[in-house]
Amino acid sequence: MTDDVDTQVGDRLVGRVLDGRYRVGARVAKGGMATVYEALDMRLDRVVALKVMHLGMGDDAEFGRRFVAEARAAAKLSHPNVVAVFDQGEDDGTLFLAMEYVPGRTLRDVVREHGPLSPARALDLLMPVLSALSAAHDAGIVHRDIKPENVLISHDGTVKVADFGLARAVTTTGQTATQGLLMGTVSYLAPELVTDGSADARSDVYSSGILLYELLTGAKPHTGETPIQVAYAHVHADVPAPSLLEPGIPPYVDALVQRATARDRDLRPADARVLSRQVRRVRSALEEGLPDDPELTGDLTVPLQAMRQETEWDDDGYTRGNGYVEHTPVRRLEPTNGRRHEPLRRPEPRHNDTIVVPRDPASSSRVGPAGPRKGRGLVALIAVLALAIGVGTAGWYYGIHRYTETPLLLNLSAADASAKAGEVGLRTTIANQDFSEDVPRGQVMGTSPAPGDRIRKEGEVGLTVSKGPERYRVPQLKGLDQEAAKLALDAIRLVVGRTTTTYNETVPAGKVIAFTPKLNTVMKPGNTVNLWVSLGRRPITVPDLTGKPFNDARSTLRKAGFVVERTDAYDAKVPAGSVISQTPNNGTLYAKDKVQVVVSKGPPLVEVPNVRRKGLAEAQKILTEAGFKVKVEQAPFHLGLNLVAGQNPAAGQQAQPGTTIIVTIV
């Protein structure tokens, strides 16, 4: 029933437009906090991934505030292995993130279909995850929710990490890892997140170690019937060595996993960048095909061994120690390959181990003759010397002979650095490029390992090459929506400065009319770009000029910016030449819009009566009653008869009332 309700809630968004911009398409995935849809950004005409928070989360004002703050922080991360955050918004209580759309699959799909993976493949998948986390940790951002579902793999094989900052926003709702919202991610939570809710870069390191364990074994290190049991295991039980499930895994890979997942955060690598360097060392050992590298394994396990020396084995095969809480038995794993984890047990001697037992001096009387004892002592001495020589030789080989120092390659070109490294048998690769105000473009600004650090002979030095000072050219912003212009500037780390709004007759409302500095101006990150944004066409109030002389009305309308269209009509009440009516005669229009006016031609025309051959008095009466005026003229041959011999206008013609009719009498 719950699934049906959830489906209905998700489906109701399909086809809807959020924030007037994002048209929601098919549902891509659903998690404990949000549902992801494919959507179309109608402003920029691009496909995005829209992560919509589940109903109710937007009701928490504190969550909404933190959600916006974390989204803005995540949007500042610009890295090829980070899923870019384009926008965040709210639509009628629905909180959402607009993110880069990455078609492909998740790391969870890879584990499900191909797990367990070979150590080399597992490390190759982990490296870009750590690269993304390194960028985040450098920016002071902790992910808090590293898990296979948040690692996306595009069709071209690019690995990208999603959901930076989202888990931090969720914690403000008052939920803990075991109360619901992070229920699905409890398998990857660092112990400190369970015990006190605190998190730093080392918490992401722990989750990355759990992720590596799962890639190597196809199973999670801790399981339980409830999330509480799993969280308890994170706090009270060490992550077992992956080789317990996959015996072919080298000891140094085991050590890497256990170092990253140390329950004491002080024993873990300080951040993802440190863990990344350790992963590269392990990956290099795998490339050389070493079944074991005691020196590397020792480097990774020394802190753990120092910690474990403070512990002692109890009678049940578990440990208690001064610096640790008691180990608690955890339900055994049920991995996909059918093998089970064995509980930690007290170390037992193998058949070829030598156990030295101190002898009681009183027992010497029971020992055999002195001769055999001397013979055995000589053999023992020779064995000890041989062992010492062997250990010394191995120590020299593994600890000194195979290593050299990383040369100083700073401020050289990549080609010159490669040549100088080649002189001492080392290879170089461009591991990273970054901006620098001090190191010229194309020169080496950093190496891994650092200059003077130990590196395996014939090993590889990662170069960080300068891209020169970080500068950007102002892009073309004219004609863009104000929000689109801001996003375009955000992408190159420029900032919107002063925004001026003004009416414009040609640029639609909300679009950028102009900007300064001008196009292609080179600027530093953080510099401001000023925008002039259109309010659209200026509205103009239409005056009512009904009854006004047409010439005055036309002049007034033209000064206001309107185009005047005239129509003439007869009107008995409006004097000729004045405005009878106007459309429209109120409200607002825009410049060059048309105003139609009807101009009076005076009263309607009437037919002139025929008064010829009528007496003057009768003719005057007829014409006067028809509305005309009468003017009498005598014919040149006037006879005094006073009969109308002619009229002008002639009978039957149309004339306005009031027109003077001239009658000629004889």
From TrEMBL:
Transmembrane segments: 378-398
EC number: 2.7.11.1
SMART domains: PASTA (SM00740), S_TKc (SM00220)
Domain of life: Bacteria
Region (Disordered): 314-371
Name under which the protein is recorded: non-specific serine/threonine protein kinase
Domain PASTA positions: 400-467, 468-535, 536-601, 602-666
Alphabetical UniProt keywords: ATP-binding, Kinase, Membrane, Nucleotide-binding, Serine/threonine-protein kinase, Transferase, Transmembrane, Transmembrane helix
Record-linked InterPro entries: Kinase-like_dom_sf, PASTA_dom, Prot_kinase_dom, Ser/Thr_kinase_AS
Boundaries of every Protein kinase domain copy: 22-286
GO molecular function: kinase activity
Lineage: Bacteria, Bacillati, Actinomycetota, Actinomycetes, Propionibacteriales
